[in-house]
């Protein structure tokens, strides 16, 4: 922890040596959504294993590289594959890429994920704008000594998902005729899917969807004063009272089916967002 | 697990510094450390001089034990405490409570600055903690239990003493100080809660939310100490008012209610 600042700078310096652009938008691409990175033009692809201090992704369907280039005329850096707490990484490791993105100049983080829908008004294949989150992971990436250079000791989380961007994404989706939901993302550790009783509890506690990522990254993005847009792809319904077994394959299948509209929406967001 | 040797060293060091053993312990939260200034004939012992004590890192927490008399009672006050979010283990966070017990403390007053979750509260209110919810996903008693320090399965049904709460209410009424009462939810922090988390905490039964107190009270009860908990509602929790939360607001509010807080705690100590 004591040399975290050095590690961040070291990783950023390595990346800056590879880049001719200075991306202001960061994209974190969730399960099955990594294909968006293939649409990035003039792309420089940097495997995580080449970046000093980066952990290496282990989960199926997560390639594990940074893709840096232009998307709809905007300079972006995309994480194709992310790090999950359930893989055994510490919260600091899970969120290290966010620190590095901030260090190379990213101001807006677009965080995406695949998740289960607990709100009965949702359906598999829906996209949801994340308006807020519940940290149900039992951990926090900011526990430990605080570096004032990175952010305040007690960061405010009252609009972790930038309010004006929630409205902007809703409008953007409407312009594209894409139906979107809005709701609260409950982040759990996994890797087991939730039991029926747990899903009922999370819904009663105010969660609309449940997933195993995003929450730590958004805490760190808030700490680093970055703006955040969160979009979930609801790959399965997670209604506690009516739980059908699911597999990772089914999740990937729905994610694949939803991909075209998801990619379209994110590209339009990147193209038109005002930083 | 309690490190008996470390505890003996710390307690032994403190005994040499004190003429009389304190019976009342005070744990002073963010912005409330000023109470220690009221202690008479005081001996001040910086944490870094006490064997095996950790050192507080957070702004607004001075980091010393102040031993002396308050309203004629022998007290030991922690000016500055240790928080889980600083990266200390639960054992370290609660070590001072074990030390207090060891040097003779029978009753503790645990104070904190907390966010108001109950919408009938206002920033600046004082709240008697009637109960708590451990939402920190850790427990200082995990590990082997040494029966010399407490039972394997401590009862938490009366963690906050009803007698001391009643005394606090009586004294507040005598002093004309408005007092709330409620359940304190202990989160790890260090980020403030999101509005969705605040609504969740309310549904779970919480009236106030903070980042301390719960581990200390668990250990105090394990050690058989009587506990009185007082929160200063230093701000309304996220999403209740249309404004961001800042640590500055916490300090400003505690500054504003300082005199009420001081007279209340002093009058309680007098009657303990």
TrEMBL record, chain A:
InterPro entries registered for this protein in UniProt: Nucleoside_phosphorylase_d (IPR000845), Nucleoside_phosphorylase_sf (IPR035994), Pur_Nuc_Pase_Ino/Guo-sp (IPR011270), Purine_phosphorylase (IPR011268), Purine_phosphorylase-2_CS (IPR018099)
GO biological process: nucleoside metabolic process
Keyword NADP: no
Pfam families (UniProt xref): PNP_UDP_1 (PF01048)
Source organism phylogeny: Bacteria, Bacillati, Bacillota, Bacilli, Bacillales
Designated name of the protein: Purine nucleoside phosphorylase
Domain Nucleoside phosphorylase: 25-270
Keywords linked to the UniProt accession: Glycosyltransferase, Phosphoprotein, Transferase
EC number annotated for this UniProt entry: 2.4.2.1
Pathway the protein contributes to: Purine metabolism; purine nucleoside salvage
Reaction catalysed by this enzyme: a purine 2'-deoxy-D-ribonucleoside + phosphate = a purine nucleobase + 2-deoxy-alpha-D-ribose 1-phosphate
One term under GO cellular component: cytoplasm
PROSITE patterns documented for this protein: PNP_MTAP_2
Keyword Phosphoprotein on entry: yes
Function (record text): The purine nucleoside phosphorylases catalyze the phosphorolytic breakdown of the N-glycosidic bond in the beta-(deoxy)ribonucleoside molecules, with the formation of the corresponding free purine bases and pentose-1-phosphate. Cleaves guanosine, inosine, 2'-deoxyguanosine and 2'-deoxyinosine.
The protein's assembly and partners: Homotrimer.
MF-aspect GO terms: purine-nucleoside phosphorylase activity
Family per similarity comment: Belongs to the PNP/MTAP phosphorylase family.
Origin superkingdom: Bacteria
From TrEMBL, chain B:
Superkingdom of origin: Bacteria
Residue intervals of the Nucleoside phosphorylase domain: 23-270
Binding positions (a purine D-ribonucleoside): 193, 235
GO annotation, cellular component aspect: cytoplasm
UniProt keyword list: Glycosyltransferase, Phosphoprotein, Transferase
One Pfam family cited in the UniProt record for this chain: PNP_UDP_1
Molecular functions (GO terms): purine-nucleoside phosphorylase activity
Keyword Transferase among record annotations: yes
Biological process according to GO: nucleoside metabolic process
UniProt binding sites for phosphate: 30, 61, 81-83, 113, 212
Enzyme Commission designation: 2.4.2.1
Subunit structure: Homotrimer.
Function according to Swiss-Prot or TrEMBL: The purine nucleoside phosphorylases catalyze the phosphorolytic breakdown of the N-glycosidic bond in the beta-(deoxy)ribonucleoside molecules, with the formation of the corresponding free purine bases and pentose-1-phosphate. Cleaves guanosine, inosine, 2'-deoxyguanosine and 2'-deoxyinosine.
Name of the protein in its database record: Purine nucleoside phosphorylase
